[in-house]
Every structure is written in structure tokens, then in C-alpha cells.
């Protein structure tokens, strides 16, 4: 065997090894333009949230991409008036909501829906109240171009960014080209949004045994997680909230859509407008309840000002005759009853539990704040 | 350094390199690959003589004469086993599936890696074994995101039938959630629907399809007649869940056909 062949084999072997190790921190890509190096962004997944995540293979998180995404998230030049950014409606101090009943666009026009929180969107596989988008990259174009949000074609935003001094070098660093594209704007936004992880509430600390909950709060958790009804001669009391706001996943949301009995006739068809099915009319995504004390007003149309109002709804005002209302909101703590019938004390406990989901470190984390206001 | 080596040292190194290459490769070092193949299980849901339609405008009628509609019908099938005439069995490892009427793809199950052979029985569990109820990786079908989990004490909901019936008291909602893995209310059921003399012939180039039907009415009838007037809200482990589990074990699943392919 000639030795030159052998040397090649050895080189090949080393190459194979280094590819298989995948541990290299730096990744270099030949782009035809300039070579560039990105640093993988290390996402720290909290132990009590799902460990399975799906990040699009063509948009891995990099330090440079996340940093660019953060600037774009707070960039008003992506709006027609130059006054509104994602961060105008998704304000960190309110767990990325805006405190309004319904959102208001850059032109001052009213949106038909309430702004959603962005906590843990990394795990959400259906986005917006009606699931109109299924990936963050796809979702981000909607607010940018929507006349009742930022109201500017993304192509126009790209043109403005290209003319700036700030952005071309940042795109070069993140994506290897200073020629800005719509796709790369959406990718960078998606990268930043995937870092918005909230799992350091008092409830999380209790689960991780680094903190405690009061007896009232723990009783509230039980109400949240119990399905009311009789089991083997014992009547268990509860609110069955966990059937739609999954506590077991740690996300307190569901990728599915439900009619939770708000109306008999829905002004907003919700999921029904997407699928065209009569049985989906009035169904909305069960949103995360993390930081719920910070995200008032509540529901897709912001109809409830307070959490007390929300609990009054589930307890006393579910529209039981609404077509295709979910049977999980028809349950009762009174045998054969027609209302949920939690006692005033139980409502107080449930409320106390919901308040333990507030994560004060999430809403003050510098990594998520407006980089132009530092 | 290569130049200093003798020819024989070189060939030793070469062998080492090749072995190393193979091992760092895919890691899948199939020893003598035994011929294996797969089996498809196609499940259809019916309500007596009609096919099941979720949220259907025309209600169905139970054997007890009550009318009802269905908004959710889903259940776990797990721990699949295939048996041969000589009594030997092959257990399909890590076989957990959530069959959901709302998700068409979930109604076709593929069991792969089955050794070629003629099998005369098909056995599976409705529900999730106790080990997986209390611990283990909760990924795939067992991920709590599927809304089939209660908590550590009660574990998984094995089967869910939700809908409404005018005969159900209160708000007329029907919520039948069957579960429980501890005695005396262990609702895990292992069933082997008859293949009516057919054999499932699995060959390397032949992936047969077993067509199985699940009849919602057989969850509500059989050993125990369910009346929504008194049984409309079942959850957790208990005698009511046991009655439903006994029903579905007794004949909810029937094999319609074994197709050679």
C-alpha cells in the first residue's frame, strides 16, 4: 500500500472524528462572499420544562443571530411610521404584552385582538390566538405587514435597514452577508424569540425544591389540577384547568384550540376562520398562564380586566349552550350541577396559585431588554 | 512518521484505521442482520354501523337508547406482541402509540423491526404500563403535551371519550376519562383480538396490513351497560373507570382483515 494513500486515509479519519465530535464551538461557513464565524448560542433549558425542542434546522441559534434579533425586535424602522417595534406591544415589564384590551397599530388603528405573551414561545407549535402561524419565522411577517400593526411591507423595512450604518455589518456577522434579506430578518427575530424562556417563578422554585409555596397556594395548585367528580365514593373538588392549560408540561398552554364558553355567538370566529369548520367557530388557543398576573386584560379580545373576572367566568358564567363548547368547562363541583361551583375560598386559593406563576427575573432579564435604551 | 514504519507496521495501522472508521461511523454495527420487517395496523373508528365523525350534526344512539355526540376519542395502545403457533412471542420494544380520531396519521401504526415469520396472534395493551405511568422518558406518544396525563399519582389517561348527551345531567357534557394502574382499580387491559384463523406473514419483502376497527359503542356496552344519565363524568382510577375498561377489553377492537402485501 503506497504511503500517500495511507496519509490520505489518516486525514480522512481525523476529519471523520472531528465531524462526529460535534463539540466544536466555532463554525465557519464559506458563503462565496466573505467567510464568517458564528458562535452557537447555548440555550439553557430549565429542568421542569420539556427537554424536547424543535429549532428549524436552517435557523440554528447563534450568539450573533440572537443579538441581531434582539435589535430588530426593538427596531421601529420596521414600521411604516418609524414609531412602532415588536417591543412596543410586547413589553418586557408586562411579560411581553401591552396592558391594552386590544392592541393598537402604529397608525393608531385598533387591532381586533389582545396582545399575547411571548414567554416560552420556543415550545409553541401553534401561534396566534387562532394558530394562523406554526413557526416564529412565519409568524413574524404578520405583525410587520399587518395594517393594524406595524403596517410596512417587509421589503420596505429591509430597504431601510440596508441604508443604515448599524445593520449591514450585523447581518454580515450573523448570516455571512451584508446584503439584508427578508428571510434573514425573520430568522433573526425567531432566534431572539426562542431565548425568551420563563421558568423561574415561585412555582418553579417550589418544583425544584429551592423555594416554598404557602398552604393556600398549594391548595390552589390542587384546584387547578383536579378534575371535579366522584372517584370510588369520594368527591374530589377542582377546576380542571390543567386539561387545557397543561401544567404537566410546565408550559400552562396547549397547542390545541377550545371554545371555553365565552359566548354563544362569536364576533371573532377564531380557529373556525382558519379551518372553515363550523365546529371550530369560537375556538381559540389556550394560551400560557405563566406570568398571568402581569398580562391583563385577558382573553383574545381582552374582555376581562382582572383575574378575578376570569375566575368568575369559569365559575359562574360559562355559556353552556354555546355550540361545541368544550365539555371540560361544563364540569361542576356540585353533583349534577350546572356551574363549576368553586367556593369563594377555593377561588382565592386558585388566584393565589396563579400569582405564583409570575417570574420577576424574566421581566427584568437584561438579555431581553431594549438594547437601544441601555 | 510514516516513512519510519515498516510495511507490516503500516498494515497494522491500516487495519486499526479501518476499524476505527467503521466504529466512528454510524455506530449501527449490525451483526448478521436477521431478516426483519414491519407490520402496519390501520385503525378505523365506528359507532355501531356508522363511521365515527367528530362533532357530527346527527347524534348517535347508545345500546341503552341515549343519544350522544363525540368531540374527542383517543386512547393509548402499547406493548405490542406477536405470537407464533409454537407459542413463542416477539415483543415489540418501546411500542407506545396514541390513537386520536382527530389526527388521521395516528390511526396508522407501524411496528417495525419484527423478525420475519408467520404470526397467529396480535396482543396489545390498552393504556400504559405501570412503569411508564410513574417514571421514564416522557417523549413521543407519552409526552404530556398530548393532554393524556393527570399527575404522578394517577398517571396517564388511557382512553378519553368526550362529547355531549341530552341525557347527561347538569350541562349535558360527557367526559369519560379512563385510567388507573394500581390495584384494586387497575384499568390496564391486555387484549388479543381474534385473527379468525388468518396468519400475519412477515417477510423481508412483505409488510402486511392488519385492519382493525374500534367501535365506540363497545366502550359503552358489553359486560356493563353505561347510561349517561348516571355515568357522564369519569376520571381517575375507580370502579367506574374499571367498568369502561372491562367493556373495551371485551370487544371494542376487532380485526377485520389481514392483508398480505
Automatic annotation (TrEMBL), chain A:
Any one Gene Ontology molecular-function term assigned to this protein's record: heme binding
Residues noted as binding heme c 1 in the record, renumbered to the chain: 86, 89-90
Superkingdom of this protein's organism: Bacteria
Any one of the GO CC terms: cell envelope
Stored InterPro entries: Cyt_c-like_dom_sf (IPR036909), Cytochrome_c_Peroxidase/MauG (IPR051395), Di-haem_cyt_c_peroxidsae (IPR004852), MauG/Cytc_peroxidase (IPR026259)
Keyword Lyase attributed: no
Co-factor remark: Binds 2 heme groups.
Major subcellular site: other
UniProt domain Di-haem cytochrome c peroxidase: residue ranges: 64-209
Annotated keywords: Heme, Iron, Metal-binding, Oxidoreductase, Peroxidase, Signal
Residues the record lists as binding heme c 2: 241, 244-245
Name of the protein: Cytochrome-c peroxidase
Organism for this UniProt entry: Hymenobacter fodinae
Amino acid at each position: 500500500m503506497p504511503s500517500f494513500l495511507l496519509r490520505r486515509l489518516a486525514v480522512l479519519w481525523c476529519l471523520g472524528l472531528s465531524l462526529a465530535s460535534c463539540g466544536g464551538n466555532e463554525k465557519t461557513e464559506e458563503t462565496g462572499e466573505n467567510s464568517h464565524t458564528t458562535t452557537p448560542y447555548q440555550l439553557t433549558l430549565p429542568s421542569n420544562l420539556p427537554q424536547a425542542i424543535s429549532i428549524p434546522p436552517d435557523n440554528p441559534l447563534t450568539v450573533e443571530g440572537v443579538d441581531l434579533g434582539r435589535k430588530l425586535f426593538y427596531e421601529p424602522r420596521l414600521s411604516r411610521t418609524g414609531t412602532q417595534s415588536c417591543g412596543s406591544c410586547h413589553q418586557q415589564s408586562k411579560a411581553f404584552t401591552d396592558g391594552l384590551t386590544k392592541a393598537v397599530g402604529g397608525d393608531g388603528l385598533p387591532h381586533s385582538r389582545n396582545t399575547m405573551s411571548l414567554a416560552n414561545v420556543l415550545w409553541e407549535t401553534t401561534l396566534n390566538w387562532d394558530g394562523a402561524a406554526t413557526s416564529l419565522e412565519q409568524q413574524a411577517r404578520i405583525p410587520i405587514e399587518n395594517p393594524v400593526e406595524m403596517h410596512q411591507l417587509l421589503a420596505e423595512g429591509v430597504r431601510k435597514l440596508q441604508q443604515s450604518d448599524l445593520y449591514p455589518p450585523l447581518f454580515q456577522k450573523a448570516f455571512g452577508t451584508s446584503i439584508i434579506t427578508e428571510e434573514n430578518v425573520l430568522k433573526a427575530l425567531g432566534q431572539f424569540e426562542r431565548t425568551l424562556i420563563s421558568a423561574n417563578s415561585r412555582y418553579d422554585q417550589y418544583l425544584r425544591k429551592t423555594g416554598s409555596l404557602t398552604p393556600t397556594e398549594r391548595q390552589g395548585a390542587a384546584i387547578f389540577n383536579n378534575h371535579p367528580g366522584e372517584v370510588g365514593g369520594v368527591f374530589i373538588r377542582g377546576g380542571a384547568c390543567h386539561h387545557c392549560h397543561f401544567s404537566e408540561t410546565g408550559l400552562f398552554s396547549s397547542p390545541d384550540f377550545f371554545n371555553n364558553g365565552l359566548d354563544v355567538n362569536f364576533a371573532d370566529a377564531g380557529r373556525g376562520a382558519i379551518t372553515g369548520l363550523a365546529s371550530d367557530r369560537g375556538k381559540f388557543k389556550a394560551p400560557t398562564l405563566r406570568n398571568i398576573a402581569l398580562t391583563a386584560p385577558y382573553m383574545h379580545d381582552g374582555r376581562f380586566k382582572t383575574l378575578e373576572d376570569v375566575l368568575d367566568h369559569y365559575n359562574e358564567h360559562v355559556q353552556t349552550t354555546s355550540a361545541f363548547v368544550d365539555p371540560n368547562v361544563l364540569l361542576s363541583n356540585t353533583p349534577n350541577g350546572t356551574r363549576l361551583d368553586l367556593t369563594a375560598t377555593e377561588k382565592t386559593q386558585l388566584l393565589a396559585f396563579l400569582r405564583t406563576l409570575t417570574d420577576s427575573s424574566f421581566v427584568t432579564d437584561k438579555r431581553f431588554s431594549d438594547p437601544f435604551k441601555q | 512518521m510514516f516513512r519510519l514504519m515498516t510495511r507490516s507496521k503500516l498494515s497494522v495501522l491500516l487495519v486499526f484505521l479501518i476499524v476505527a472508521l467503521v466504529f466512528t461511523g454510524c455506530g449501527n454495527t449490525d451483526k448478521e442482520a436477521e431478516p426483519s420487517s414491519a407490520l402496519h395496523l390501520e385503525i378505523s373508528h365506528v359507532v355501531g354501523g356508522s363511521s365515527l365523525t367528530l362533532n357530527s350534526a346527527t347524534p348517535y344512539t347508545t345500546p341503552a337508547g341515549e343519544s350522544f355526540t363525540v368531540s374527542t376519542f383517543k386512547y393509548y395502545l402499547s406493548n405490542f406482541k406477536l405470537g407464533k403457533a409454537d407459542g413463542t412471542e416477539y415483543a415489540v420494544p418501546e411500542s407506545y402509540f396514541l390513537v386520536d380520531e382527530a389526527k388521521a396519521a395516528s390511526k396508522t401504526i407501524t411496528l417495525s423491526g419484527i423478525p420475519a415469520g408467520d404470526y397467529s396472534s396480535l396482543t396489545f395493551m390498552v393504556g400504559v404500563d405501570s412503569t411508564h405511568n410513574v417514571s421514564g422518558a416522557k417523549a413521543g406518544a407519552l409526552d404530556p403535551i398530548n393532554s393524556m396525563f393527570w399527575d404522578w399519582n394517577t398517571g396517564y389517561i388511557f382512553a378519553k371519550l368526550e362529547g355531549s348527551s341530552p341525557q347527561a345531567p347538569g350541562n349535558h357534557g360527557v367526559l369519560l376519562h379512563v385510567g388507573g394502574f394500581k390495584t384494586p382499580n387497575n384499568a390496564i387491559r391486555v387484549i388479543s383480538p381474534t385473527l379468525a384463523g388468518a396468519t400475519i406473514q412477515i417477510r423481508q419483502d412483505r409488510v402486511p396490513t392488519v385492519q382493525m376497527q374500534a367501535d365506540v359503542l363497545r366502550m359503552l356496552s358489553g359486560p356493563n351497560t353505561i347510561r349517561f344519565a348516571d355515568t357522564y363524568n369519569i376520571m381517575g382510577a375507580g370502579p367506574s373507570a374499571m367498568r369502561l375498561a372491562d367493556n373495551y377489553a371485551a370487544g371494542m377492537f376487532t380485526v377485520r382483515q389481514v392483508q398480505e402485501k
